[in-house]
Fold this protein.
Amino acid sequence: MTILLEVKNLITRFHTPEGTVFAVNGVSFSLEEGGTLAVVGESGCGKSVTMMSLLRLIPIPPGEIVSGIVNYHGQDLLKLSENSMQSDIRGKEIAMVFQDPMTSLNPVLTIGRQLTEPLRVHLNYQPDQARKRAVDLLELVGIPDPSKRLGDYPHQFSGGMRQRVMIAMALACNPTMLIADEPTTALDVTIQAQIIELVKELRDKIGLSIIWITHDLGVVAGLAEHVIVMYAGYIVEEADVDTLYENPRHPYTLALMAALPHAERRRESRLKSIPGAPPNLLVEPSGCPFASRCEYVVEKCRLENPPLKALGNEHSMACWLDVKMGELQ
Amino acid sequence: MTDLQPLVIVNNLVKHFPVMRGILIQRQVGTVRAVDGISFFIAPSETLGLVGESGCGKTTAGRTLLGLYPPTDGQITIDGHNLRKAHGPTMMAIRRKAQIIFQDPYASLNPRWTISAIIGEPLRVHHLISSEAERTDRVRELLRLVGLSPSHLNRFPHEFSGGQRQRIGVARALASDPKFIVCDEPISALDVSIQAQVVNLLEDLQDRLGLTYLFIAHDLSMVRHICDRVAVMYLGVIVELAARDELYEHPLHPYTKALLSAVPIPDPKKDRARRRTILAGDVPSPLNPPPGCRFHPRCPIAVEKCHQDVPEWREVISGHWVACHLV
Amino acid sequence: MTVANPLPNIQPLKPLSLDELEAPPLTLSKMAWLKFRRHKMALVGVGILVLMILYCTLGGLVFSEKFANYNDTGIALQPPSSVHPFGTDVIGRDILARTIYGGQISLLIGLIAVMLETTLGIIIGAVSGYFGGLVDSLLMRFTEAILIVPQIFLLLVMAKFFAGNIPNLTILGREFSGSVVVIIAIIGLTSWPYLARIVRAEFLTLKESEFVLAARATGSSTFDIIFRHILPNSIAPIVVSATLGVANAITLEAYISFLGLGVRPPTATWGNMLEGAYNYIDKAYWLWLFPGLLILLIVLSINFVGDGLRDALDPRSRTI
């Protein structure tokens, strides 16, 4: 397998009137060609900002990409000119699908117009060529009667259908990679299942590499091959999906798993909750960001932030303790 | 559960919203059949789950049940009082005994009131306190009860995080010492690590105060955790109602089965191994629900009969109710 | 009561410590001030407004009203000098003193007319938005009917119709032309429709909000819901509209007074000081320059303040 995307030590901050927001604090990961990577974390953990940073979609200012390397097919996306980023990378190589299909579509233009326009602008398609491609794309994402629906406006589609249209638009220029930012969070479970099935199908059919951002460990389990768990702008654990669910090692991952209720399991006495709330990102991080909520916390955690450490078998985590082994590393 | 008289009885509850048009004289051009004849009861200290996808009418059902929307038809009895005939002091008695917790912790607290005023409102309205000092004492006590620091008394909602705001909402609901609380998706707007905190709080309070809950949710996993019995709603009607484990282990209605199979399992091996029923299409509009069984256009096993006849609501096994021709 | 006596065997939940609070403890007014402060022009506006109010009030201590109304045709139309810094008008009155007393009346008209306008606007908008249905239909059609008639036209007709019917009034030992009351009333009575529509829109949204539903579920009275829950949350657009309304009322007064239908002399306003000044546009610039400048300054500064308030009170703009 060849590496498609490699991110090294990405740091992103936002300079707001309230102070500096330490959004992403040195994140490194890679994605193989045809692979599926899931990035899991709660709101404000920096998972979306990481992806926006690597596509250079964050507003500068107030945002600032302090350092990092984003290697894509041998070129550093952070060093590319804005022009070539826009014409060669965004949409063409790496496409993105967002959480809210309602606000991502222009309500006063037909779906057909919104689908064909990028084809005509970026790929110089003729109108009838673009129209044919649009019909194919809608068919690909499972919208019934696609040629008729091209003339419809976004409000004539349901939420799930709109998300399908968004995926069709993302696929318009045959991207190599798709970044999906919580694409099913706003949808109902039955519709979520439809979209996940669709993405799996697309992955197998057209060999798409996928980064799937979510806060739902359940969604990840059935979809991803590799999982990154983020907390307060740091990667705290990284492993392939089976290892992570069978053998989670970081206290935060353990706590997240324990907090999940299981539909196929009987009621336990109590859910294990994580006390407190996520840290304030306005404070310069010192020590382990999870220390204030961690039940295994020791003196060292408050003083020094643990680095991401390899445990072998592509499994790594950032904790001074090995909670499973019960010892200080 | 118990052999006691049910605390809440809902019989054939209907709530239709008229769709009006017109400049000066408005006329009705359609009806949104948000809730179209649902019946259930809730025993004291029991938690009944009401699950369904967005637009199925579960939130409307919860609000109509408390008289926040006037019901179109049907009977509602809460703690022996007939809600539809209640007014004046009886209505106030019901308002005191039946409370609600909302989904959005940001929209459900008045942003211009202090925590003390918000939690103290039910105390003031129901004349449960005689002085300012007494109110402060009670509010402190309630804050402690929901796990917040009593020193936060004079702060405003915007100073709290989502989970803390939801606790404030719980404290407000508890202020008038209610018996019954409608929990309207109280955790779906919260982060995963915070959800468990709020669910544990609700369970603790139930054990401690003997509360009765109607727990409205779309998250089937959490419903299984917290509820005793579960009702599944689709497009304004309840399609299945059973004890929790019965429903999860032996679902009868095809919609319940599909819903259960759509829930992602946080275990990669199991998730890969199981066979999923992926429902086609979307929930139809409640403005114009399909005839016959409302689920038939999406039902994988629908037969001719389902297109015409409304399935009867019947008890298949003791305590397990379902509305389907093919069960 | 059950809550009062928690069972002893259950340990209380651990309270969260203060440092876990998401936002710094700021009161709403502090937050509004922090946001207001960012608008340099709004701060300048506040400064000018304060100076103007001082000018009108402290100035009254220097010159008596008698002096302001004292005329001596012998010194008519004198250009600014050390005796009469702003010059004198066509019948020899001191313009500086008249701008001071005129300012008092103009500000008074602006403030009282806005109070009237705001009260009417809030009541009509609130009733319409909260109760809806037929009441809403009737009130809104009435509001639109008022909006259709041009306000200036309505003002002129009403000013013409009522003027002269009301005798002079004496308040706090000062004599006012009865036309002041007429002008206040007609400005107030014709300006409310915009505010009523704003308030109605706010009420329509807020009455469906979850905190209002929560109040209803608690059993709060309709009065409480309207005046303690919804109204305080719609205060931002009301304050902004009222602020701008003051400027509007001052301009309107100037407009009708300029046309000779407004406040009658000898009571001075910035508006009626302009009356007749057009005859001397090139010959006696001081007749129109000083009152005109004052009107311009006050209207501009009020608008700047209004813009600042709009941003400061808007709960959606969260950045401090």
